[in-house]
Amino acid sequence: MALRSSSTLRPLDRPLTALCLCFVSWKIILFIIACLAPGPGYDTSTALLLGRLGQLSGNVNTSPENATQNNILMRLMTHVASKLVRWDAIYFTQIAERGYAFEQEWAFGWGFTQLISQLTQTLASLGLITTPPTVTAEAIVGIFLAHSSHFFSVIILHHLASLLLPIQSRAPLAFIIAFLHIVTPAGLFLSGPCTESVFSFFSFSGLYLFVLSHVYDLRARRGPRDLCTLFSGIFFGLASTVRSNGLLNGILYLYDLVALLQDVLTNRNLTVAHIRRGLILALSGLFVAAGIVYPQYLAYQSFCTLGESQADLRPWCQERLPSIYAYVQSAYWDVGFLRYWTVSNLPLFLLAAPMLYILSSSAIWALMMQRPKSKDDSAKASHAERSLILTSPIFARCITPLAIIQLLLAILAFTNYHVQIISRISSGYVVWYIWVALKLSGELAPASGDKLVPTESIVRWMVVYAIIQGGLFASFLPPA
């Protein structure tokens, strides 16, 4: 798959249009797979949840012809919802409708449920759906939010890659990177009312602004640089309200802060500009942390300030750093260090192995690129590796903390998480997209393992995994 071939270069004339067509085509394929899934699936939770059906629109013409059309549309939308509201999506839609009622529900991202709820309430206030909205309406709004977030994530990722990459290879690589995000193994998790697509949208938006801040820094434009840094922290904070692993994005600011301190210590010169930059980075990091802390504060207010005696308080209320999220994950979902390492879970580790390999290999590649090279290493380095570092100072500045974040995610998934989720939460991280795109271009120096795992096989695995997972997801079968 060479980038120089005419068949590959055609989409580059209008890359955003081509990406739109690819996005719609892929979503149609997944949509057909979901709709063809037989029956209510292995579990009846969705059927029970969506049993409370209501009209999605109370402000319609009730003539027989329109009533029939509305009934057909309603049946179609309800059928789609019944196939996409699976696993975690059941919690998200129910919480969005009636709020957090049970302790274990606080494991599910507060930010995402609030987005669904607020958007549904807005549509209801405009008369587009009935008041009060039904859980089916919440589900359909969540599906719309997932699709739109995934689409805009693709567009933002294309622009982000264009900022990071050197001019000579920018257009083809940016297109491939964005395309890989379309066919990511997350599959139907990016179509149903789940957090992955919204997390990607907030994360890529924050990362775009963060990278843009470095562009302004190179141009010595401090005002725009600091504004972009602050707004990137806000977007990363929003990502943290959606998924807790968004907290890892704070490493970007920590890395820059350490570099700033090293500069001060090396030059032995602390200036007002240094202090200002340090405060901006610290404040941006606090925005990221706030995305985790604020939902915990709301839960604390609900469970720990009711006036009961110490004996009646929930165990986590009395911790030094009370966190309902950490407690619920441990007590209800059995999340913890090496807890998932059981013989019965071995098939799930095997399913997660390809993505763990991709995440760790691409992160290690990015970290190794930054180390000083010997003459032999420099001779073996590919054109792409040399050009990324030499002609893209933005890439050189940003790639190391991004690689650290991705490597930490892979380690945490392997040691702490329910490991199979790595195939869907990896969709919100950028280094592995760059790595696979460079390999597909044929410009990246081949590694020793490439004969065992050709790059084309990685892309085939992504597509096949997403398709098979789509059928299993719609049938309420694992992996989830």
UniProtKB/TrEMBL annotation:
InterPro entries: PIG-V/Gpi18. It comes from the Eukaryota. The chain crosses the membrane at residues 16-39, 139-161, 173-192, 198-215, 227-244, 278-297, 346-367, 388-415, 458-477. GO terms for biological process: GPI anchor biosynthetic process. Its EC number is 2.4.1.-. Keywords: Endoplasmic reticulum, Glycosyltransferase, GPI-anchor biosynthesis, Membrane, Transferase, Transmembrane, Transmembrane helix. Pfam families: Mannosyl_trans2 (PF04188). The keyword Glycosyltransferase applies. One of its GO terms (cellular component) is mannosyltransferase complex. It is found in: Endoplasmic reticulum membrane. It is a multi-pass membrane protein. Mannosyltransferase involved in glycosylphosphatidylinositol-anchor biosynthesis. Belongs to the PIGV family. This is GPI mannosyltransferase 2. It comes from Xylona heveae (strain CBS 132557 / TC161). The lineage of its organism: Eukaryota, Fungi, Dikarya, Ascomycota, Pezizomycotina.
